[in-house]
Amino acid sequence: MTVDRNNSIVSTSSNANLAPVVVDYNISQITPYVFVTAEDTARQFPKVFSNGINCVINVAHELPYIVFPPSSRIESLKYPIEDTPTFPAAQYFDAIADRIAHNVATNRRTLLYCHHGRSRSVTFILAYLIKHHNLPLPAAFALVKERRQLALPNVGFWSQLKSFESYHQQQQQKANDSVILKTLQHSVTYGEQMLHKMTDGVERVLAQVPFVNTLTDIQSNFPKYYQPHPSWIYSQPDQHHHNRYYRLLAGLFQRI
Known about the structure:
CATH topology of the largest domain: Protein-Tyrosine Phosphatase, Chain A
Number of domains: 2
Number of helices: 9
Largest sheet: 5 strands, mixed
Strand content: 5-15%
Oligomer: single chain
CATH architecture of the largest domain: Alpha-Beta Complex
């Protein structure tokens, strides 16, 4: 067994057919409030305390629960996750992701750990990034991989994460469509209100214009001023009729 300068340990097995296992014993900070490490480091209280951790989540079925000193006020939780491709880890995605998000909302730092801090703990951090940061799975994994190079969910967990990503993308699209629809409905309602206001305003303005009022009055009372005799249509009107008609028009224009 050798220790490198990055505080990683390479365990060599006596069985030559087994590949060496690389374990990173550092506490890796993924986001300002989310951390990941291996089991041995999670049990070192000084390291946990020095990173300002408020909540420690054990996501390994085979690992015992950690009890921290009561004075530390560090919350300790455990979820029985098995590191096998067929294990239904997805049924815990929402619960753990929501717990991390709740801690973030209350300015509490969360440390996740499993046996090596490589597969199970990383899987649930990816679920949190997908659900609460709306990150696509490749982008979320690239972020985690940059901060913890050994990160590698097993193939079954990766498949479940892809389904989780697809579901939340659909939910996000529905939410976006709902916002767009509400915006359009508000715009139509607002437009109708403005049109009614403009129409009412125009009618009030026209009602105050004397010329328009006079024309309206002339139009409505025109039959009282001029009721042509049927004989005018078929016969040449005499001078008397001409004079009467001109006087009528002159009176009307004087009112205008």
